[in-house]
Here is the input.
Amino acid sequence: MSDERDGNITSVLFVCLGNICRSPLAEGVFRAGASARGLATRFEFDSAGTGGWHRGDPPDPRSIAVCAAHGVDISGLRARQLSGTDFERFDHIFAMDRNNLSDIRRMGSGRADLALFMRACLGDNQDVPDPYYGTKSDFDQVYRMVRRAADSWFETMATRVSG
Ligand code: 4NP
Here is the structure.
């Protein structure tokens, strides 16, 4: 796996509860963002859930749909549970909400820098709300938050990878 310290590849793991709504959406949006900026080879993005109930499942159809509406295909992703090795494999682990953050802390620690997603990307100490029991508009809101966060994060990272 990549190592940010080698100056080449930055790896990020997005983590939510089920790994079917928010974190696969973030994985897709960040992958698309890297590709659009010609930076696909500079980053690795993955996602996982603190829970394992949806292991092997594709993303929620509502996450697939909102991504597809914005030209991002996440239909091939499959859910997995966060594992102990993830704390060594990734440079960054971003928790989508504060419950995820405290669950992740209980599940392990390691080299990875663990942070709340919106705080890491925007300096905004805010949760990405769980849309699982919500409506299409909740998924639209998640997409908008993640997209805004991605644009900000890449802006910050671009200054680091341009050298
Ligand atoms: P996610 O949403 O954490 O954004 O993937 C959820 C998905 C499934 C469940 C809860 C939240 N669930 O209870 O099964």
Remarks:
- The mean pLDDT is 94.
- The radius of gyration is 14 Å.
- Residues 16-22, 53, 130, 132 surround 4-nitrophenyl phosphate (CB under 6 Å).
- The longest helix spans residues 136-161.
